[in-house]
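tokens incoming
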């Protein structure tokens, strides 16, 4: 998790992955030798899982909680992060050098192919790839070839979720839910602009501000608002009429799964691609200029809340998500593979 002021760029993520791989790989190889598993399930970004399967000859099942990247998509993401690269160049140079050094070390130590930054995103060779979105929502679906199964969002009950307060909604008012996720949720100015935008509207609003901020850092709370450090997101989305989100694919998918239109405020990484898909499928709006006066934000919220085309498209994509099977189909596909 980046410290305040740092940027979670491709370089920073690559550096993190390579340092973790170097640290974990010896122990993982020893555990495989001891426990003799039949197959390994690994997140696509966890290089240590991929290398463990490769070095031990185990069947590899890769899970993709974000879209499967294509070369075109990766180039676009790098371009979108270009400003951050320039602004944080002193931070990135040591990360880049350390990435190269660890990559060379792993090659010398284990005889594996030299890893590049592109490999961390585009190297998806696996015995089975499980993608947690639907085929309809995957960008450039025709360019994603091989043994990919699109199982839709993995959504189920969460034991940690507590019951919603009884005053969280009123039947005669739509509920607006605002959450900027867990990594990029400390933009007080952005939160306050939305609070002011929604203050005079005939809505209820839940503002998830994260544990780093206290309610006193935000604008005074209107009576029809609820400030929460952490919201039980799935329960809120079941009742929400509008979801204002940072644009992580998990949040976007949960919104659509619960038939909630979106306003997306991407902050970094794949969130721009996710926002682009929201705009293309017309299930919400990508707010490309988040620094806008409250009156314009209020107008945008009214548009998304009342637009019939957006409502229809959210319903259509929701059906696509639910028909894909979710975690139950993912489990079925795993057993189908390992029983061959």
């Amino acid at each position: 998790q980046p410290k305040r002021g740092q940027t979670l760029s491709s370089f920073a993520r690559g550096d993190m992955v390579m340092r973790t791989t170097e640290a974990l790989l010896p122990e993982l190889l020893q555990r495989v030798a001891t426990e003799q598993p039949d197959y390994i399930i690994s997140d696509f970004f966890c290089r240590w899982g991929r290398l463990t399967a490769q070095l031990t000859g185990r069947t590899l099942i890769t899970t993709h909680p974000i879209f499967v990247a294509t070369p075109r998509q990766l180039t676009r993401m790098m371009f979108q992060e270009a400003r951050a690269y320039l602004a944080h160049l002193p931070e990135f140079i040591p990360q880049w050098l350390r990435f190269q050094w660890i990559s060379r070390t792993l090659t010398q130590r284990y005889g594996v192919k030299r890893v590049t930054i592109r490999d961390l995103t585009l190297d998806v060779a696996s015995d089975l790839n499980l993608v947690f979105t639907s085929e309809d929502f995957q960008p450039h679906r025709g360019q994603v070839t091989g043994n990919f199964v699109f199982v839709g969002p993995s959504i189920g009950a969460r034991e940690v979720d507590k019951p919603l307060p009884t005053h969280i909604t009123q039947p005669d008012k739509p509920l607006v839910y605002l959450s900027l996720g867990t990594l990029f949720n400390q933009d007080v100015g952005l939160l306050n602009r939305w609070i002011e935008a929604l203050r005079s509207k005939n809505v209820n609003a839940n503002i998830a501000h994260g544990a780093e901020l206290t309610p006193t850092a935000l604008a005074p709370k209107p009576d029809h608002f609820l400030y929460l450090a952490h919201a039980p997101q799935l329960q809120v989305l079941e009742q929400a009429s509008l979801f204002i989100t940072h644009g992580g694919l998990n949040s976007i998918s949960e919104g659509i799964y619960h038939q909630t239109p979106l306003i997306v405020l991407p902050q970094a990484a794949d969130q721009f691609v996710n926002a682009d898909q929201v705009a293309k499928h017309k299930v919400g709006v990508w707010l490309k200029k988040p620094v806008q006066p409250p009156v314009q934000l209020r107008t945008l919220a009214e548009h998304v809340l009342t637009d019939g085309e957006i409502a229809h498209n959210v319903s259509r994509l929701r059906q696509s998500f639910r028909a894909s099977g979710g975690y139950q189909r993912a489990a079925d596909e795993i057993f189908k593979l390992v029983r061959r």
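note: The radius of gyration is 21 Å.
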